[in-house]
TrEMBL record:
Signal peptide: none annotated. Residues 156-172 have a biased composition (Low complexity). This is Carbon monoxide dehydrogenase subunit G. The lineage of its organism: Bacteria, Pseudomonadati, Pseudomonadota, Betaproteobacteria, Burkholderiales. Gene3D superfamilies: 3.30.530.20. It comes from the Bacteria. Residues 146-197 are annotated as: Disordered.
Length: 197
């Protein structure tokens, strides 16, 4: 499986680099992550729970950073065991480039192999799960960096933006007449909810 994506982060390159090397931020951003602990120089022991199609398992593994070129790029080499569910291993090359004074483009190419039950459920399900996990990671990562969700993919952010606008409109409308104002708020909330689907 190979996965290549780019995301725009709402912070300068140095700040993005520091966040990518902050285990507390990474733990908060990786879906299902239970722990990330130092395990040697530029290496970490990781425990997480993940679902891939019908297979849900707790994985324990190791992540090693290689080819480090701060604050521009590094390669993550990873391997993990999920007991009866199987195993996963591979690498991801992560590259940061400035996209203006206050934003950074993060591009990564990940290659992974799976075995055991994970390999039996089919590459389409595995690829889909990997993309979903990556999308959730970057959404959380953008929020941790203080700029809301990462700028791309823009499609998924539309519902969140509408919901945020509704919250702001609701707080601005407090203290004013109820009746029609309340109906307008409900209509906006309903629109935001519908737009997520």
């Amino acid at each position: 499986m190979e996965l290549t994506e780019s995301h725009t982060l709402p912070v300068p390159q140095q700040r993005a680099w520091e966040a990518l090397n902050d285990t507390a931020i990474l733990k908060a951003c990786i879906p299902g992550c239970e722990s990330i602990e130092a395990d040697g120089k530029n290496a970490y022991a990781v425990a997480l729970t993940a679902s891939v199609g019908p297979v849900k398992a707790r994985f324990k593994g190791r992540m090693q950073l290689a080819d480090i070129d701060a604050p521009n790029s590094y390669t993550i080499v990873f391997e993990g065991q999920g007991g009866a569910a199987g195993f996963g291993k591979g690498d991801a090359h992560v590259k940061l480039e400035p996209a203006g004074d206050e934003s950074t483009t993060l591009t990564y190419t990940a290659n992974a192999q799976v075995g055991g039950k994970l390999a039996q459920i089919g590459s389409r399900l595995v690829d889909g799960a990997a993309r979903k996990i990556a999308a959730e990671f970057f959404k959380r990562f953008g929020e941790q960096l203080g700029g809301g969700a990462a700028q791309e993919p823009a499609q998924e952010d539309a519902g969140a933006a509408n919901a945020e606008a509704d919250t702001q409109a609701a707080s601005e409308g407090e203290g004013e007449g109820e009746g029609a104002e309340d109906q307008q708020k409900r209509k906006r909330s309903w629109t935001a909810w519908i737009s997520k689907f």
